[in-house]
Amino acid sequence: MIKLAVRAGMLGPLLFGIVLITLTILKYDFLLSLGWHPLNDPTFDWPSGLALGAYGWIMTLTFITSGLMLTLFASGLRLSLPRSRLTLIATFTLSLAGLALAGLAFTTDLTIRSTPATWHGRLHDLSFVLLGITLMPSMILLGFAFRHALQWRSLSSYTWLTALLAVPTFSLKGSAFYIFLLAMLVWCQVIAIRLKPERTN
After folding, report:
1. Does residue 199 surpass a pLDDT of 50?
2. Distance in angstroms (rounded) separating the CA atoms of residues 23 and 98
3. How far is CA 97 from the centre of its chain?
4. What contacts 118, CB < 8 A, 6 or more positions away?
5. Residue 37: strand pairing partners
6. Burial 47-60, CB ≥16 within 10 A → b, else e
7. DSSP readout, 3-44?
8. SS3 156
9. Which residues on neighbouring strands pair with residue 41, listed in sequence order?
10. Percent of the chain at pLDDT above 70?
């Protein structure tokens, strides 16, 4: 399980980042037609809008795959960290964040539209909110859990600093959102690398 969690923690962020960049390049004109702009309005129907139109199924599948990988990664952390209520709550919350990420596979509604909101668009928006209210708290809790294990203690402050950076950049609808994505992807990689030598040798 821990070996699978390590692979999930390392491959999940890479998959998400590669797909995000590739589809943004391929669908650049389409995104512009929706009202998106990489600098002036980078979160306008992005990245959710990548699941619309041509190649949209790739983004949908990536949401599901990356979300399930994050949930699997959380399970590996639960097994690696000292058993405690704190560890259980922290990793359970991270698992919920993974499920919320997978929930972004529900097709989003366009911001500019003449039709009412759809059921799948509402579920997409709800999943985005749930991702925000589970991912950052899970990281804060994990920071405390890391302090109770010698081999993880050095990552406690890093986890808290990442969460501190992520909260405002997740909330701000601007180019700061890029920082949020990068910080989250790098954090998963760093934690997965630390998980690997402790339990998989």
Report:
1. no
2. 21
3. 7
4. 107, 109
5. 41
6. bbbbbbeebbeebb
7. HHHHHHHHHHHHHHHHHHHHHHHHTHHHHHHHT-BTTTBTTT
8. helix
9. 37
10. 96
Q: How far apart are CA 58 and CA 51, in angstroms?
A: 7
Q: Which amino acid is at 137?
A: P
Q: What range does the domain containing 55 cover?
A: 2-199
Q: Which two tokens stand for residue 160?
A: 């808290």
How many CA atoms, within 13 angstroms, populate the side-chain half-sphere of residue 117? Answer: 11
Domain tally, the chain: 1
Q: What is the mean pLDDT of the chain?
A: 90
Residue 179 banded pLDDT, cuts 50, 70, 90:
confident
Cβ proximity of 146 and 155 under 8 Å? yes
Residue with tokens 């925000």: 132
Q: Which residues, 6+ apart, have CB-to-CB distance to 173 below 8 Å?
A: 43
Contact 2, 76 (CB under 8 A): yes
Task: State the pLDDT at residue 113.
Answer: 85
Scan for tokens 């969460």, then name that residue: 163
pLDDT digits (tens, 9 = 90+) for 81-113: 989 999 999 999 999 999 999 999 999 999 888
Residues in the chain, total: 201
pTM of the model: 0.89
